[in-house]
Write a structure and sequence with these properties.
By secondary structure, this protein is mostly beta strands. The chain has one domain: Porin. It is built from 2 helices and 10 strands. The strands form 2 sheets. It has an 8-stranded antiparallel β-barrel. Strand 8 and strand 9 form a beta hairpin. The chain is elongated, with a radius of gyration of 17 Å. The protein starts with a helix and ends with a strand.
């Protein structure tokens, strides 16, 4: 996953450099969008979690037509599989990042920040993996704008602690720009 994140950062930096010479200033640089997120865990997390659902809001400030910075916050609910009888695990991710438009409608999003666990995470052996608190989170994604008000994004979300314990998921986000 680190290689994918690095590759996305390199490609994004390339387009950022292009944006400095080709793009013009944006007349309305501040955008706010809100939308639902759904996803599935993978790897070791697929044993414990079955489905992820949430809601997020994103503030975007465009410096030029193809490059902007973002601030994203929301809530994600990770549902345990029924064999664990533990209910749900919640996270409140707060991420800052950059958004590169690789075409007028397609974009790359790179975000990093903190995810706040709302309760302790218990694994299949009833061991506590991640306690309530804040953890490093990162989320590269690729998306498409559907007109001026709608966009969709496919993204990876990684949440990890200093002991190299991870909660990873692939998510799909649809958003409406206010």
């Amino acid at each position: 996953m680190k290689k994918l994140f690095l590759l996305t950062l390199i490609v994004g930096s390339y387009y950022c450099g292009m944006a400095q010479t080709e793009d013009t200033k944006v007349s309305n640089p501040i955008k706010v969008n809100i939308g639902p997120e759904v996803g599935f865990p993978f790897g070791n997390n697929a044993v414990e979690y079955s489905f992820i659902a949430g809601l997020s809001a994103q503030l975007e400030y465009d410096f030029v037509e193809r490059f902007g910075v973002t601030l994203t916050a929301g809530y994600l609910n990770f549902s345990y599989k029924t064999v664990f009888n533990h209910g749900n695990q919640g996270f409140i991710p707060v991420l800052a990042g950059v958004k590169f438009y690789i075409s007028p409608r397609a974009f790359l999003n790179l975000r990093a920040g903190l995810a706040f666990a709302t309760s302790s995470i218990v694994d299949a052996s009833n061991n506590v993996n991640l306690k309530s608190g804040s953890y490093f989170a990162y989320s590269p994604g690729i998306g498409h704008k559907f007109g001026k008000k709608m966009e969709g994004e496919f993204k990876f979300l990684g949440i990890s602690n200093s002991l190299h314990q991870h909660v990873n998921s692939y998510e799909l986000r649809f958003a409406y720009t206010l």
